[in-house]
Amino acid sequence: MVTIQTYISKNGYDAIVEKHVVANGDFIPIHHSSAKQLGNQQLFTSKGTSLYGTVIISFQNQFLSNFNDWDDVDGIWLSILQTTYDCLNTGIGNCGFTERSMGWQMNRLIEKNPAILFSWHHGFANKERNDIPNKTTLRFPENLLLNNIIEKGTMYLKFRESLYDSGPSQNIKQLINNLRSFM
Known about the structure:
The chain is built from 6 helices and 9 strands; from the N terminus they run E-H-E-H-E-E-E-H-E-E-E-H-E-H-H. With 183 residues, it is α+β, with helices and mostly antiparallel strands. Strands 1, 2, 3, 4 and 5 form a 5-stranded antiparallel sheet that branches. A 4-stranded antiparallel sheet has the order 6-7-8-9. Helix 3 packs parallel to helix 6. The protein is globular, with a radius of gyration of 16 Å.
């Protein structure tokens, strides 16, 4: 079972950085009743430039990412969607995310049961905590991962469009539509 959940930070950038170690209590899922208010507050405070959070991805109870992999959640989603599109289109997708030195790589494995090898480079998170590896890699059934990325990307898009500043919603929508062509 693939699980993809988007979370919004309860705190701004400075408060998260000062804490050094973050936990699930520092974030709320985007379907939470106060997520929209919190998202609007972050966007207002940052003058529409930043919405901090994370995307937690797991497969069969093995975690690809964790709460220490937080950053601008718009950028995380755009990077995941672009990496997935590039992987399905060319066989490999890479995307670096510079603010916290995270990155993603996906390799398409053409086999009897097509799969995607998804690697998450944890960047600064592994420097902040010794128990986080430099990179985590999981193998996903291709259709299962694609369906979940489209579904959860669409949920994030709807959440993002509900905020007072819809940010990169058009870019997210275009990437989701591009991914649907692989279904």
